[in-house]
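Thread: Newbie trying to understand structure tokens

Hi all, I'm a second-year student working on a class project, and my supervisor (Dr. K.) asked me to get a predicted structure for one chain before our next meeting. I've only ever worked with sequences, so writing a 3D structure as a token string is new to me. If someone could post the tokens and maybe explain what I'm looking at, I'd be very grateful. Here's the chain:
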Amino acid sequence: MKSKFLDWKYFLILLSVLYYPYLNVISWGGDYAHYILQGKNIYNLNYYIENQQYLNSITENNRFAIYTSFGFPLLLYFSSYLHSWNIYVIKLITPICLGIISYLLIKNMKNKDLKLIYLIFLLNPNLNDSFKDIFTEIPAIMFFLLALNFRNKPFIKNIFLLICCLIRPTFLIFIMIDLIFESYKKKTYKNITNFLIIFVSSNLLFRYFSNYNLLGNYTSSYSSTNASSSIISFDIFGMFNSLVPVFFERLFFLISEIGRLFSGFSNPVNIIFGCLILLLLVLKRNKYSYMFISFSFFHLLIGTPYYVRYFLPLIFIFILYLNELNFKFSLGRINKVFLLSVFLVFSFLSLNNFLNLDKQR
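---
Reply by user tm_fold:
Sure, no problem. This is what the structure looks like when written as tokens:
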């Protein structure tokens, strides 16, 4: 009976129930406006970018890009016949992608214990928080997982990896680690070469025909360097320079945010949770632990008041990590009490988030 309950169809039902309260909820417009306007102006980019540059020039402490990576705006553009630019319909992309992610993960899980852990993770209030916004992290990790499922079809896999990277350029970290491990296993670097050829040539062709960086232009307070003139879409040297004075403070905060990602709320012991998770990843290493650690610590370069939003994909990477370890979770009395406690805490926090939407942001 328990195994039947952990079938992927029940996870989709759970996602539907979790999303329903947010069906007509939109809590803010920053990301919506950026992605949607860029998607609607694909054939009129000069006008859009001129407006964006003007708005950025008169905005204090601006954190928005001149233009974002083109993956998500293009996805919105090509799917516009489905959503007709209706913002409430566009927002459905998050639960749809989570449904596909859940199906891909569950059908590849090695034991039912991990399915139960994933069921609890779906109740994580940080994940539920994505239902009221458009987070590109969720579609990007979906395409990454799709790529992993087409491991024996290199061309299809590389297309999915390219889409993933064009939606979230930082996911190149996941992609390269996966390709390096795959190359080591197969004793050939052909897969890395093929992906890099597709990745670089796509960027160069897009720049040749449109004169824009396919990975976006994230020129900001780090530097006045025009990121459209290079393949890298941000000034990495400026980011390193800005990190040096605040390294330890930011490191402490980043580890706390890793803890908050899994605890679901801010509390004084998140730093301990974060350290324990990182310790586990270091002691029991596989390719997904390298992905988790590399992706996390790359974000030290990014000054932000929060990391949890950017770390949402790590929930799924952590599930892949546990699956690779063939993780088993004995359902003794203590563990049942623990899981029930986590379930109740996550349920309360998610309900509290929904009831207090008007006080957020």
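A couple of things are worth pointing out once you decode it. Confidence is low (pLDDT under 50) at residues 221-231. The chain is about 65% helix and 0% strand. Feel free to ask follow-ups in this thread.
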